[in-house]
Design goal:
This protein is an all-alpha fold. The chain has a domain of 70 residues. The protein contains 4 helices and no strands. The longest helix is centred in the middle third of the chain and has 49 residues.
């Protein structure tokens, strides 16, 4: 009698233990999703930081280039006409390079989105 009661109790404990483990089957999936989201957020922060630094450099170069262009334009028709023409060309090229750098900075923002 004692032996059969012990076996019944042991069997009951085993079924309860297995039932308790299956109570939250999605817990591992949830943890995995949270870790995936954290990795995505870290990746977004990294891409935004890259984009920010490239964008700032592009603004600086473009502003410098277009300032040189304006200075060259102001020198046209005066005694430094040749220097003004050179500054117009150099400033224009520098401004275009800076604008390209600005546009190029946005490619990191596109990398934040996942493609299905």
């Amino acid at each position: 009698m004692l032996r059969s009661s012990f076996l019944i109790l042991l069997f009951s404990l085993l079924t309860l233990t297995t039932y308790g483990q299956e109570r939250y089957p999605g817990l591992d999936t949830l943890k995995q999703q949270v870790l995936t989201l954290q990795a995505d957020v870290d990746n977004i922060h990294l891409n935004l930081e890259k984009s920010k630094s490239k964008f700032q450099r592009g603004i600086l170069v473009a502003t410098l280039g277009y300032t040189i262009t304006i200075a060259g334009g102001l020198m046209l028709g005066r005694e430094n006409d040749e220097l003004g023409q050179g500054l117009l060309i150099a400033g224009g090229v520098t401004g275009v390079v800076g604008t390209y750098m600005l546009v190029d900075a946005f490619k990191f923002l596109g990398r934040t989105r996942r493609r299905p």
